[in-house]
Amino acid sequence: MIAFENVAYSYGGGELLSDVSLRLAPGSFHFLTGPSGAGKSTFLKLCYAELQPTAGRITLFDHDVRSLNRDDVARTRRRMGVVHQDCQFLDHLPLSANVTLPAMVAGRGAEAADMKDLLNWVGLAKLAGALPPQLSGGERQRAALARAVIMSPDVVLADEPTGNLDWEMSLRLLTLLVELNKMGKTILIATHDLNLIRAAKQQVPARVLRIAKRRVQLAGADL
Ligand SMILES: Nc1ncnc2c1ncn2[C@@H]1O[C@H](COP(=O)(O)OP(=O)(O)OP(=O)(O)O)[C@@H](O)[C@H]1O
C-alpha cells in the first residue's frame, strides 16, 4: 500500500532520512516515534506525496510517486485521510461545513445523513453548527479526524493526533483510530506518547516504527 525502497530525504542540508526501506501492508496499524526533529512529520509528508524523495523510490497503491502527475497525486490523496498536527479549519465556516469540505472539493458533496453519522461517531453531533474557534482542543482533534475520513480513505495518517489532549481524550481518539483499523483501514500515527502505543497494543496488533540516526526501523515488541 505504501512502500519505501532505499529512500532518502534532505531539505537541502544534510540528509534527514537515509536508506529507508519498509512496507505498510493494507489493514496494518503502525506508530511512528522518534525524538523531536527526527523527521516524523517529514516521513508522513513523503507518505502522502507532499514531498518527493531525494533518493530511492516510494510506491503508493502500486504507483511510483515520481510517475504521478498532478491529477494522479490528487486522486491518490483522496485515498488517504490526513490528520495534520495543527488541525487548521476555516474559522468562518461551521464545523459541519469544515468536515465536508474535502468531499465538496472533490465535487462529490456529502450526504447530510453521512455527515451526521460521522459527527455522531466522533461525538460532535451537537456541535455541527459551532464555529472552529469555539471548539476545545479535543473537539478540534476529533473534528480533524472526521474530516480526514469523510472520503472513506484506505489509509489514515495522523501527525501527533493526541498532542494537546488529556489522557481520557487521547484514549477516546485512539478508540476511533482502532475502530477504523478494524474496518480495514491502514493506520499510521506519529506520536511521542509511549503510553498511547501501549494502550493501542492491548487492542490491535500495532507495530512501532522508530526514527533514529536518520533510519526508520521496526522497534521490538518491548517498544
Ligand atoms: N520545510 C522545511 N525546510 C527546511 N527544514 C525543515 C522543513 N520542515 C522541517 N524541517 C526540519 O527537518 C527536521 C525534521 O522536521 P520534522 O517536522 O519532520 O520532525 P518531527 O520528528 O516531526 O518533529 P516534532 O516531533 O518536533 O514534530 C527539523 O530539524 C526541521 O527543522
UniProtKB/TrEMBL annotation:
Domain of life: Bacteria
PANTHER family assigned: CELL DIVISION ATP-BINDING PROTEIN FTSE, IMPORT ATP-BINDING PROTEIN
Keyword Cell division: yes
One Gene Ontology term, aspect cellular component: plasma membrane
SUPFAM superfamilies from the UniProt entry: P-loop containing nucleoside triphosphate hydrolases
Occurrences of domain ABC transporter (ranges): 2-223
Xref: PROSITE patterns: ABC_TRANSPORTER_1 (PS00211), ABC_TRANSPORTER_2 (PS50893)
One GO process term, biological-process aspect: cell division
Official protein name in the record: Cell division transport system ATP-binding protein
Record keywords, A-Z: ATP-binding, Cell cycle, Cell division, Nucleotide-binding
Organism: Pseudorhodobacter antarcticus
GO molecular function: ATP binding; ATP hydrolysis activity; transmembrane transporter activity
